[in-house]
Design goal:
Blueprint lengths: L4 H21 L8 H21 L8 H10 L1 H9 L8 H15 L6 H25 L2 H19 L6 H12 L6 H16 L3 H11 L4 H14 L18 H17 L13 H12 L5 E8 L2 E8 L7 H13 L6 H8 L6 H16 L5 H17 L1 H4 L4 H18 L4 H7 L2 H4 L3 H10 L6 H11 L2 H10 L2 H10 L7 H13 L3 H10 L1 H4 L3 H11 L2 H12 L10 H11 L3 H14 L4 H13 L3 H15 L3 H13 L6 H10 L2 H14 L2 H14 L7 H12 L13 E7 L5 E7 L8 E3 L2 E5 H7 L9 E4 L2 E10 H15 L14 H15 L3 H12 L8 H8 L3 H10 L23 E3 L1 H9 L4 H6 L2 E4 H18 L6 E5 L2 E5 L3 H19 L3 E2 L12 H8 L1 H13 L2 E3 L3 H9 L3 E3 L1 H8 L3 H13 L8 H9 L5 H10 L6 H21 L8 H13 L2 E11 L5 E11 L4 E2 L5 E7 L8
Parallel strand pairs: 4-6, 9-10, 9-14, 10-13, 14-15
Antiparallel strand pairs: 1-2, 3-4, 3-8, 5-6, 7-8, 11-12, 16-17, 17-18, 17-19
Helix pairs in contact: 1-2, 1-3, 2-6, 4-6, 5-6, 7-8, 8-9, 9-11, 10-11, 11-12, 12-14, 14-15, 14-16, 15-16, 16-17, 16-19, 17-19, 19-22, 24-26, 26-27, 27-29, 29-30, 29-31, 31-32, 32-33, 33-34, 34-35, 35-36, 35-37, 37-38, 38-39, 39-41, 48-49, 48-51, 50-51, 54-56, 55-57, 56-58, 57-58
Length: 1212
């Protein structure tokens, strides 16, 4: 029976009042003021009635409790406690001991709410009576209060995470007499709220008793938030509602936490109506209805991946932080790959224990599936395990929802890191959540290597029927044990995922015949799974199955056991040379968040194999820190960089030296040769030759060309020494041997290289081979040999390489019988050259095609590959050749000086042209001109070749012209001129800023490799840079400009660009003069004509006249072109010029020269007349006479009137 609360409160007060009477009358405390005593009684009475009405329905309003405290002396003990010093006991500890005693002695079942009500009643009474004592007792007695103040002080001082200032602030507020002021309340609230979000719940728990009589708002708030956040939150359940909190700041925070924890526990339908307004009120209303508004979502398929576009809700700005917490909880629940990045992007201003746990969990789950090795996974898991273990005291108190997440991820991290802590973790998991974590516990025990019986496996299957529990177990158990389990679980083979994992247990043990039978047996059930198709292809190696996999993948018709299967698919497609499809799968994986260096490497190799070498190389360079020991990565970087004229980093070169294989050494040697480090290049070439086993290796040809370019002399020496080779004949036989001597840096033991036997220097010394001359006798294999020749190893290796090239048909060999007549030998030689070389007649055909204006000319690079092996020289010789008309791209309507703010890129040939025109390099730099980086590297390479070819004596080329042998040799002056030209050109180019191209370029399905053959690397890079950086290409070559325009890029001719940057009119005419000297087609455009016509510069007419006069000095072929060119330029100029304007001297000079070229004469006649004002007018009639047609051309007549004004006024 429950009595009415008022009656219960009266009984309680009467009992307390009796104890007060006894205490006062005993004389223990001499009361100075009867008023204070009466005031205290009234205060106690109000407290009892107020407290009992709030806790009506609990045990304190039951007669059982009234009878208990009456007879149990609980109140007397409490009064005694407040009157003594307590060194080793705090108020909280005292109340805890009292509650234990009451719960044990009270012969009545009590609930958690009952306990809380009793404890609160005793705590309130304790505080009330302590205040009374402080006011009414003697000074000596006040010492008791000071001793008891130690309770609060010790609570606060024990908070290690709170700094001294904050401790003092709390202490001052709690120790202050009476209730807290609003400012104190807010200050304490901020401290406690920060502690709450840091997971320092013990601070709130410890200080709660002290707040009971100090601040009702904080007391309710602490109880409410602890009730929501903790697993034992029932201990802090209160009968108060949020609306009972008077402090608005505290009340609104309680509402926000209520919203967050209700949403976390999926109980938003239980959110009550709170006394709040504004954005917070709308937030409560929104979350009570649903959570769809937290994000706006749209789904699309991108690169065969379901791609979710989510936009976080951004309204209700005053509640932005609370909404972000809700959004993180929402997105965490999605459980999809990539959630970690979304959580990061949401970005709460201050992290809290909820966000921290959710973020750590998803970051770990996103990262663990992309680990490339077990070692990496263990390292990642160990780091998370240690972090979470360090936060155990925080999370073991939290609510059930958070603890499930905490223990589950801790179990996973422990099992993957294999730290033998799984059983310890399981023993610490609260019993109330163990059932919910049963699956995680099972898997963690298994993953951690614990023996699990088949019976236990069967039990958990029968209990859950979840394949995801069985899959990890099947993946690690033996095929025989899996078969035994299947025999005991009848329905397990009805699940396709478990069937697939079961098949894989046989593949894991190389039991392919049994796996094949199972694949055929369950094909109909499993054929829609990606894993099944991968297994099938690996077993049967049937390309038709690959086609099925590709089709199903493209049509998104595959089911997956794990997202990681696409990684296996990508590797499989690469192995089957389905590179484009492999790239598609890799792109999908990247969108899903699977990015690691193995997948990047696969992507790079796929790009290289699909002719996108630039992008592939860029990825490989990024991988060097992780892949410096990977032969494929380092080898491809070297090979591609050399082919694409790219710089090779020191890190790559060092990695190549450490790998030290013959193939990589070959690339490394070429790289050092291009750098100009010939000595180091030779050393590495030798290492490659010594240990090469690949008969198809390019090392033989590469070293042979290296030796012809860089090794001087005939290679014969007088004395055998280190790095020489002895050629010796058997004294008593016909055998000839080659005995090489090399230092230890090349080899440490003897080596047979076909017919070349090589020994380290120390061995040669022991054999007596050092310091020998021709004619000396040495011993080899116990046989005596006579030295007939001693060569450098350079020369011997060169011979060795040439022999290898002949053996493997890499060079053509001409064999002529020794007794052939000279005429017969000449005929054989001519026929051999005609069959195996690009004959001079073919060269002439190419040049003829270039001169034919009706044909589109090949690029100069393409011509250089056929006419001459050196691009830099061909452009120079073409520009210097007076018989050639340099073919140019011309647009008479649009050849204007466009301004491109982003910048300009010079083509290779335009760079040479501007250099030869003497355009100052500073002018180019100041006007945003750039070069592809590959242009500078190409120039360095070409320069070295030109100097190497021209610094040697003799040399030349042999060709067959009209069946006659002809030998072509450059003069010494020509050689000096070329060497000077390439040296100065490189210096010029190296001053211009460079841009590195990192994008491949293709056009209308023309592969990059074909475009590279047509344009060369520098010009292809130039077009690609224009595409990616929006630069304009400066070029005159027709083929190059047309391709650039087809790509949607901007182009400008060198003539138009010079017009835009040369501000001096005289200087501009100077460039026009030089262009005529180079036989350029585009030597004038309408813009320049108009600019000169309007020029007021001193002497400009004379300079223009000299420029025009140069035309008469040109050969007929060039003059014929200029005639057509000037005619079109003049026509475009006249279209923009008003007809009524007077012709100036510039225009007359141009017109006369044009008519001369057109074989026309200008006939003049004059007449005089007067105008209507009486002024004298001299009228000039100009008519154009065509000498070929012998008649005047209609439509070209002009009349020019010169008026002389006459003043008829009277003389002054």
């Amino acid at each position: 029976m429950v009595i009415e609360w008022g009656k219960a409160a009266g009984i309680a007060y009467n009992i307390i009042s009796l104890f007060l009477n006894d205490e006062i009358s005993s004389g223990k405390n001499k009361i100075k003021n009867k008023v204070i005593e009466r005031f205290h009684r009234r205060k106690i009475k109000r407290f009892c009635y107020s407290y009992f009405i709030k806790h009506n329905g609990t045990v304190i309003t039951n007669p059982v409790f009234a009878e208990f405290i009456k007879n149990d002396q609980t109140i007397e003990r409490l009064f005694i406690y407040t009157g003594k010093a307590h060194v080793d006991q705090t108020d909280s500890e005292y109340l805890n001991s009292e509650m234990i005693r009451i719960e044990k002695e009270l012969e009545y079942p009590i609930t958690v709410l009952d306990k809380k009500a009793i404890r609160g009643f005793l705590n309130g009474l304790l505080l009330q009576h302590r205040q009374y004592r402080e006011k009414c007792l003697t000074d000596d007695s006040k010492q008791i209060i000071q001793n008891n103040d130690r309770n609060t002080k010790e609570i606060i001082n024990s908070f290690e995470s709170i700094n001294e200032d904050t401790k003092n602030e709390l202490l001052a507020a709690i120790s202050a007499k009476g209730s807290l002021q609003i400012s104190q309340e807010n200050a304490i609230f901020k401290i406690l709220n920060d502690s709450f979000w840091n997971g320092e719940f013990y601070i709130l728990e410890s200080i709660q008793p002290a707040l009971h009589e100090k601040s009702e708002s904080l007391d309710i708030w602490v109880n409410m938030v602890l009730n929501m956040a903790l697993l034992n939150g029932e201990n802090y359940r209160t009968f108060h509602s949020v609306n009972d909190i008077k402090n608005p700041n505290v009340r609104e925070d309680a509402v926000r936490k209520n919203v967050i924890f209700s949403y976390l526990s999926k109980k938003t339908d239980e959110i009550e109506a709170f006394n709040v307004s504004g954005d917070l009120k709308e937030l409560v209303e929104r979350i009570s209805i649903g959570d769809e508004w937290l994000f706006s979502e749209s789904k699309e398929v991108k690169d065969n991946v379901e791609y979710y576009n989510i936009t976080p809700f951004s309204g209700l700005k005053q509640e932005d932080e609370t909404i972000k917490n809700l959004q993180i909880i929402y997105i965490f629940g999605k459980g999809i790959l990539g959630v970690a990045k979304v959580i990061d992007n949401i970005g709460v201003r201050e992290s809290n224990f909820i966000v921290e746990l959710l973020s750590d969990t998803r970051h770990y789950e996103d990262s663990i599936i992309t680990c490339e090795s077990e070692t990496e996974a263990r390292k990642l898991s160990s780091a998370l395990f240690e972090k979470l273990r360090g936060e155990k005291n925080k999370y073991v108190k939290t609510c059930k929802e958070l603890q499930v997440i905490y223990w589950r991820i801790l179990l996973q991290a422990a099992s993957v890191s294999n730290n033998n802590r799984v059983n310890d973790i399981v023993s610490n998991i609260p019993e109330v959540i163990k059932e919910e974590l049963a699956e995680s516990i099972f898997l963690a025990r298994f993953e951690n290597g614990e023996d699990i019986s088949n019976k236990e496996v069967i039990d958990i299957w029968n209990k859950t029927k979840k394949p995801r529990i069985m899959i990890p177990y099947f993946a690690k158990t033996s095929a025989n044990n899996a078969k035994q389990l299947i025999s005991e679980i009848s329905d397990i083979m009805q699940n396709p995922e478990l069937v697939i994992v079961y098949i894989e247990t046989y593949l894991k043990e190389d039991r392919y015949d049994e796996a094949k039978l199972l694949i055929r047996q369950y094909e109909a059930l499993c054929n829609g799974y990606a894993e099944f198709l991968v297994d099938k292809i690996q077993v049967f190696h049937d390309e038709e199955d690959v086609k099925v996999l590709v089709e199903k993948w493209n049509n998104r018709q595959l089911s997956y056991i794990t997202n990681q299967t696409d990684i296996a698919i990508a590797h499989l497609l690469f192995d089957w040379k389905k590179y484009e499809m492999c790239l598609n799968v890799l792109q999908a994986l990247e969108l899903k968040g699977f990015v690691n260096h193995k997948l990047k490497k696969l992507r790079a190799f796929s790009l290289i194999n699909t002719d996108r070498t630039v992008e592939g190389l860029s990825i490989l360079n990024e991988l060097i820190p992780e892949c410096r020991e990977d032969k494929a990565v380092v080898g491809n970087i070297l090979n591609c960089s050399l082919g694409l004229q790219r710089e090779i980093s020191e890190e790559v070169l060092l990695a190549a030296e450490e790998i030290n294989t013959p193939e990589i050494n070959l690339y490394l040697a070429v790289a050092y040769e291009r750098r100009g480090d010939i000595a180091l290049a030779k050393k590495i070439y030798w290492k490659s030759l010594l240990f090469n086993k690949n008969t198809k290796s390019k090392v033989y040809g590469t070293y042979w060309f290296f030796s012809t370019n860089h090794i001087k002399g005939n290679g014969v020496v007088e004395i055998s020494d280190e790095n020489t080779c002895i050629i010796a004949d058997e004294v008593d036989g016909n055998r000839r041997v080659s005995l090489g001597i090399l230092s230890k840096e090349y080899l440490e033991s003897e080596l047979n290289l076909d017919d070349l036997f090589i020994v380290p220097t120390d061995n040669a010394i022991k054999r007596g081979w050092i310091g020998k001359k021709v004619g000396a006798v040495i011993e080899y294999e116990s046989i005596q040999y006579n030295i007939v020749q001693i060569k450098t190893m350079d020369a011997r290796f060169s011979e060795y390489c040439l022999g290898k090239m002949i053996d493997y048909d890499n060079v053509k060999v001409l064999s002529v019988p020794q007794d052939s007549e000279p005429e017969k030998m000449r005929e054989c030689f001519v026929n051999f050259l005609k069959e195996n070389s690009f004959g001079n007649n073919k060269i002439q055909d190419l040049i003829k095609d270039y001169k034919d204006l009706s044909k589109v000319p090949l690029s100069l690079f393409s011509l250089s590959q056929s006419l001459r092996p050196n691009y830099i020289v061909l452009v120079y010789e073409f520009l210097k050749d007076p018989s050639l008309l340099i073919r140019e791209w011309i647009d008479y309507d649009n050849d204007v000086a466009c301004i491109n703010e982003e910048g300009y890129i010079l083509s290779f040939s335009s760079l040479i042209l501007l250099f030869l025109l003497d355009v100052p390099v500073e002018m180019l730099i100041d006007n945003n001109v750039y070069l592809p980086k590959s242009t500078v590297l190409e120039l360095r390479d070409e320069k070295d070749k030109v100097i190497s070819e021209n610094k040697r004596d003799g040399g030349g080329t042999v060709a067959v012209v009209d069946d006659q042998l002809q030998f072509f040799v450059n003069s010494d002056d020509s050689k000096q001129e070329l060497m000077k030209y390439v040296t100065e050109l490189l210096e010029y180019a190296e001053k211009i800023p460079t841009v590195d191209n990192k994008k491949d370029f293709s056009l209308n399905n023309i592969p990059e490799s074909q475009l590279r053959l047509l344009l060369g690397t520098p010009d292809l890079d130039a077009i690609s840079i224009c595409k990616t950086e929006n630069y304009a290409l400066i070029s005159f070559e027709i083929f190059l400009v047309e391709l650039n325009l087809l790509a949607g890029n901007k182009s400008i001719t060198p003539l138009a660009y010079i017009n835009s940057i040369e501000k001096d009119d005289s200087g501009l005419i100077g460039y026009l003069n030089k262009m005529v000297q180079f036989h350029m087609m585009n030597i004038l455009n309408k813009d320049i004509y108009e600019r000169i016509a309007k020029s007021t510069a001193s002497g400009i007419t004379e300079e223009w006249n000299q420029y025009i006069g140069m035309i008469d000095q040109q050969d007929s072929n060039y003059k014929n072109w200029i005639k057509e060119h000037f005619a079109l330029v003049g026509q475009k100029y006249q279209q923009n010029r008003g007809e009524d304007q007077t012709i100036n001297d510039i225009e007359k000079i141009f017109t006369v020269e044009l008519y001369k070229l057109l074989e026309r004469e200008v006939h003049y006649s004059m007449d005089t007349l007067h105008d209507e004002k009486g002024n004298l007018v001299i009228r000039t009639y100009m008519r154009v006479f065509d000498k070929k047609e012998q008649k005047y051309i209609e439509g070209l007549d002009q009349i020019i009137d010169s008026v002389f004004q006459i003043d008829f006024s009277d003389e002054q």
